[in-house]
Amino acid sequence: MDRLAHEGIPEVCALYKRVWDQFPELPGDRAREWTPGPLEFTSWMEGVTYFVARSDGHTVGAIGCETRAGSCRIVRLAVDPDHRRQGIATALTQQALEWARHARCGSIWADPLSRFTAAAALFQRLGFSECGVFHRHFHNEDLKLFEKLL
Ligand SMILES: CC(C)(COP(=O)(O)OP(=O)(O)OC[C@H]1O[C@@H](n2cnc3c(N)ncnc32)[C@H](O)[C@@H]1OP(=O)(O)O)[C@@H](O)C(=O)NCCC(=O)NCCS
Questions:
Q1: Domains with residue ranges and CATH for the chain
Q2: Atom 25 in ligand 1: residue holding the nearest Cα
Q3: I need a labelling partner for 30 at 20 to 30 A (CA). Which of 20, 24, 93, 113 fits?
């Protein structure tokens, strides 16, 4: 796992495009909104630390850690469709846990769309508790809340 440096931004943008192209049925124009260009991604980096996973020199996974008021929110976790179920998201999330502990956070949390059942299974497997639902919260879709105390 590497901390994302500026030169890695185009590859991360390409990764997000591969991931969200898989979800053409997302409400509104979410897929496009979550597929930034390099310039837009630079603004996503404000206050968020990103880590990336690589395989054969290519970026195959990414995670953002947004630390605020003593808690770390996981954002924009995604793994290349061709590299799933190989433990990449697990390793990225463990990196986020390490980062949160390093930042002396009391907890780490995530709020995937309810429809993202793989993400729910991942967080449960990693010892997060499902602690709530935001109903019709994101463009009329439910979000599930997961947290882990550190
Ligand atoms: C969710 C996601 C990041 C998981 O990435 P991954 O690298 O395949 O996950 P891992 O290989 O680390 O999986 C670890 C465990 O999570 C669970 N899991 C992961 N994907 C799963 C799936 N499709 N179905 C059921 N369980 C799943 C399993 O328990 C898995 O362990 P196992 O493979 O030994 O059974 C990936 O599917 C993805 O990018 N999805 C689209 C974007 C998304 O949902 N992002 C999350 C937003 S917060």
A1: 2-149 (3.40.630.30)
A2: 118
A3: 93
